[in-house]
Amino acid sequence: MERALQRMSALVGLPALLAEHGVPLASVTDGLDLPPDCFGNPDARIAYGTASRLLTRAAELTGCAHFGLLLGLRHDHRIMGEAGQWMMAAPTLGAALAGFIAIQPTATRGGVAYLNRYGNDIILGYGTVDRFNLLATQQLGSVLAVGLNMVRNLTGGRAQPLEMIFAFRPPANPVLWSRLLGVPTRFNQPENGIILPRSAMLLPVVAGDCSKGADAGRLASLQRQAAKGMPPPPASMTFDVIRALRVGILTGEVTATRTAGRLGLHPKAMARGLSAEGARYQTLLDHVRSTTAQQLLSVTDLPVADIALSLGYANHAGFVPAFRRWTGQSPSEWRKRQQAR
């Protein structure tokens, strides 16, 4: 799998926030592969892992454990380029978020945004698919903070999230996170996201200009425009299936038929596309499950049985031999070795 790229977006605010903490930008960027003047261009692309390392270093050097969260809270949909343009022209929050999710693959190859049911509510979620970037907790905090501002500001404050959930261990001061975000928070969860009442999807967007239109033609035009900044993946069907599976495992919908349906394809067409790229569906499903399992084992304290259920396994007994096949170790052994590093 290729190493993932992502758009700079909220990272353009990094120098200013570092300066407020008395930390020079050069100390954070030292040794990292960054394009010239990327902090002045939200459309610049950098490696997904580099983005994570920037925020991790910034948190360490400033001594601010919630640095990523603070950075994200300074931005909203207006930092998102073409996706932001779409959202400001959409009639409702639901339409805005659906369009955002359609355009989002042009902004990052390392993560996937999605809308799913969450009990009787809706989750605007985000999951990583980059196996080289298992410890991206600062990045996750930043992404979800931007998403929170996006939801609130698009609706003029009418959309009131019920809570936010995070797939990593509680920070030293979880109460501070709830206070900064203005919503209840829970940690050690199997996914990251903003929980919204279903009624919020019908709220009108008040933050932009609906006269620009938000029909399918405009969405396609914005997708093409946004895609110009991101080199096409060498295996586009493989990339699409991995993203679809990352969302599907959260709801247990991981059959080839279900995944093809998410992509608007017949299962045979999906299989032919994967075969042409030298990929197999079951191999990709194993890849996504393995990556997600390793993330949850690395940064949460979730019991192995709960992780198994979150990956779509019926029970613990089915997950353990699969994980051993992927890594050569049991989940518990793998976690202990990670914690010992």
From TrEMBL:
<dbReference type="GO" id="GO:0005829">
    <property type="term" value="C:cytosol"/>
</dbReference>
<keyword id="KW-0238">DNA-binding</keyword>
<protein>
    <submittedName>
        <fullName>Helix-turn-helix domain-containing protein</fullName>
    </submittedName>
</protein>
<dbReference type="Pfam" id="PF12833">
    <property type="entry name" value="HTH_18"/>
</dbReference>
<dbReference type="GO" id="GO:0000976">
    <property type="term" value="F:transcription cis-regulatory region binding"/>
</dbReference>
<dbReference type="InterPro" id="IPR009057">
    <property type="entry name" value="Homeodomain-like_sf"/>
</dbReference>
<dbReference type="GO" id="GO:0003700">
    <property type="term" value="F:DNA-binding transcription factor activity"/>
</dbReference>
<feature type="domain" description="HTH araC/xylS-type">
    <location>
        <begin position="239"/>
        <end position="337"/>
    </location>
</feature>
<keyword id="KW-0804">Transcription</keyword>
<keyword id="KW-0805">Transcription regulation</keyword>
<dbReference type="Pfam" id="PF12625">
    <property type="entry name" value="Arabinose_bd"/>
</dbReference>
<dbReference type="InterPro" id="IPR018060">
    <property type="entry name" value="HTH_AraC"/>
</dbReference>
<dbReference type="InterPro" id="IPR032687">
    <property type="entry name" value="AraC-type_N"/>
</dbReference>
<dbReference type="InterPro" id="IPR020449">
    <property type="entry name" value="Tscrpt_reg_AraC-type_HTH"/>
</dbReference>
